[in-house]
Amino acid sequence: YGRNAFHEAAIYGDSEMIKTIHMAGGDPLSKDTNGNTPLSLVLHKGENDKTLYAELKSKCEAKYLAPTFAREIIPGIMQFLNGEPMQPLLFSGPPGTGKTTAGQFLAECLSLPLALISAPRAETGHGYSGEGKTFKGADVGEIVSNIFRNRSMSVLFLIDEVDKAAQKLDNRVRQQDELLNIVFDRRVEDNFLDFP
C-alpha cells in the first residue's frame, strides 16, 4: 500500500510511536498509494471499522456461519487486525456444526496459516510441548512442529477433538496442563528444543 512507519503507527493508534517517528523527522503529510496521510487514516479509522465489520459479517453469512458466531468472533478479528492480541476461542458442538469451517474462516480473515492438531494424536505422540531428549524417540511437540512446517511464528492453531483425547485421568491432567499453560502464558515451551 506504499505505507511507511508513520502510516502503520497511525493505523494501530500507537501515539507513542507516532511521537517518536515525528521527532525523528517522519513526514506526517506523506501519502500512501491511496493518497492517505497518517492523519487521514486516524480520522477515518471509525469509518473503516464499520466497513470492515460489514465485510466480515458478509463473509460469515457467505460461509453459512451462525449469526451468534459472527457477533462473538468479528470483534476479536478486528482487534487482531488493529494490532491487538486475540483471545483464545473455544468452539463446541456436535459434528457438522462448523467448528473446523470457523477455524478456516478465522485463518483466512487473519491471513494466517491454519494448523489443525488432533488432540488424540497429540496425546499418543509427543504432546503439545515435546519430550525431553533423554527419551528414546523424543521429538518436538505439535505446536513447534507446526510452526516449522508453516515456516512462520504466526500460526492459527485449531486443536480438534479435545473431548476424545486423554481417556486416562493422568494423561487428561497432563494434556490439560499443557494446553492451559500455552493459553494463559501465551507462550510455548518445548521440552525437546529446551526453549520457551
Give a written overview of the molecule.
It is a single chain. The protein is mainly alpha-helical. It is built from nine helices and two strands; from the N terminus they run ααααααβααβα. The protein has helices at residues 5-11, 15-23, 38-43, 45-62, 67-81, 99-110, 119-124, 142-150, 169-185; strands at 114-118, 156-160. Strands 1-2 form a two-stranded parallel ribbon. Helix 1 packs antiparallel against helix 2 (15-23) and helix 4 crosses helix 5. The longest helix is centred in the first third of the chain and has 18 residues, at 45-62. It is globular and about 60 Å long. 20% of the residues are buried. The mean pLDDT is 76.
Write the layout of secondary structure elements.
Layout: H1 5-11, H2 15-23, H3 38-43, H4 45-62, H5 67-81, H6 99-110, E1 114-118, H7 119-124, H8 142-150, E2 156-160, H9 169-185
Parallel strand pairs: 1-2
Helix pairs in contact: 1-2, 4-5, 5-6
Features:
196 residues, mainly alpha, 9 helices
Anisotropy-based shape: globular
- Supply Rg: 21 Å
Largest sheet: 2 strands, parallel
| Annotation, overall tally of beta strands | 2
Strand fraction: 5-15%
- What structural class should be given to the helix and strand makeup? mainly alpha
What percent of the residues sit in helical stretches (DSSP H or I)?
A: 40-55%
In round numbers, the mean pLDDT is 76
